Amino acid sequence: MSEARDLAIIGAGPAGMAAAITAATLGVDTVVLDEQASPGGQIYRAITETPVRHGTVFGDDYWRGLDLARAFIGSGATYLPGTTVFSVAPRVEDDRREIGISSGGQARLLRARHVIVATGAQERPMPVPGWTLPGVLTAGAAQILLKSAGLAPSGRTVLAGSGPLLWLLAAQLLRAGGTLSAILDTTPRIRPGLDMLAFATSPYLSKGLALMRETRRHLAPISGLTGLRAEGDDRLRGVSFFDRAGTTRRIDCDTLLLHQGVVPNVNLAMSIGCAHRWDDSQLCFVPTLDAWGHSGTDGVSIAGDGAGIAGAESAAERGRLAALDAACRLGRIDAARRDREAEAPRRVLATYGRGRAFLERAFRPIEAHRIPSGDTIACRCEEVSAAQIEDAVRIGATGPNQLKAYLRCGMGPCQGRLCGLTVTELIARARGKTPDEIGHYRLRPPVKPITVAELASLPRSEAETNAVARQ
Length: 471
Ligand SMILES: Cc1cc2nc3c(=O)[nH]c(=O)nc-3n(C[C@H](O)[C@H](O)[C@H](O)COP(=O)(O)OP(=O)(O)OC[C@H]3O[C@@H](n4cnc5c(N)ncnc54)[C@H](O)[C@@H]3O)c2cc1C
Description:
This protein is α/β, with parallel strands linked by helices. It has 19 helices and 21 strands. It has three domains: about 5-120 and about 265-335, FAD/NAD(P)-binding domain (3-Layer(bba) Sandwich); about 135-260, FAD/NAD(P)-binding domain (3-Layer(bba) Sandwich); about 370-440, Arc Repressor Mutant, subunit A (Orthogonal Bundle). It binds flavin-adenine dinucleotide. Flavin-adenine dinucleotide binds near residues 312 and 447.
């Protein structure tokens, strides 16, 4: 296998898989790199090998991914599962960009003329007091355990937060025979708005209502609560909160699953140098892209939820558009054909786009659950509290990058994934500025941890590269 490719796609979720199918069908020499053992990304995780074969547990939306995964596997694109991309060079050399990959403890380099970053979304941090206690994890982590290992939490389990995934996971856990002691819904009261009309005609309304109705048949959620706090000593013992009347309530539990929406996974795209801006509707940084998903960085496109949260169906269509544009830039098809073949994906995007504005407004996470205070941990890797960050700002830290020097915030194994947004919003509040003015950590490779041995194992010459590839 030559290490020089025309198109490298990073991520085999709906966006990456759809992009690969489109590109391979157009005869583009394509390689797909994904850290997971099998295709599917987040929504279709482990779809070709999940132990949960009972069709109803995950629902039709999940199983719709099986056709896409099979078409992807049969597409002719080279697929490298279990492969983590730790770097994509910010500069082009000899018309190609160097990509650092790690697989099975061995690192090596690829070079590609065009890169589609389809690394998806991650859950928004929810830095409430006690969120680092053993027994507290994210709803998405519980869903990953269910999809990949068929495991549901045992004991007294509380699901807390807001957003479509919260209701989806509640239904999936209950269908899988799991039990929930309580659902704590932090969604603020929703004010009527014009965006409700568009939402009413989008595919999301019926799905959302069906999930809520199904869950309510098992247990009534406690809604409109604030001041969520995980309590315990060496481990989680319970969760407390203020109910709508402002009364303090507490529920004893062994597991607390937190969730308040998903945000683009920006690390790789930012480390390449792709421009990002603060999106106040999604309360996160999103890349600046053209109508094809091409970033301002030549030869780099971003597709899927990494381009801004729009859901699985839109992710696949964005993947198709990015692949069509890449094929055109690589000279495989002309612009007329690209535009013609883009019509269908754009229609689907318009349909699913209709409901987003309302979803973002309705499930806007409250400030108290986004921006911590006092000794609540903001940076988990380096155990830095909100108060320490505010102190650093008081003595002169102006932004996230200075904070690295002051407190090592964002310098741990997650490279700012779990604190980037929190730190930006904390500093913005402390300095009376906007998150866009404060900015995000400057991200550099490696964006995922690799060992020194792997770095040392990197071939030092083209000849050595090919020797390793032949192994
Ligand atoms: C934990 C979680 C669970 C979710 N569950 C659902 C659900 O059940 N239903 C739903 O409708 N939506 C769900 N979503 C929303 C989800 O973002 C979208 O539905 C959809 O999966 C987005 O597709 P995508 O192709 O953009 O990215 P993803 O599906 O997220 O795929 C991105 C892929 O890139 C891989 N990747 C990332 N970085 C690297 C790297 N550096 N090197 C190699 N591989 C990399 C990831 O492991 C992943 O396989 C979930 C989101 C999260 C974060």
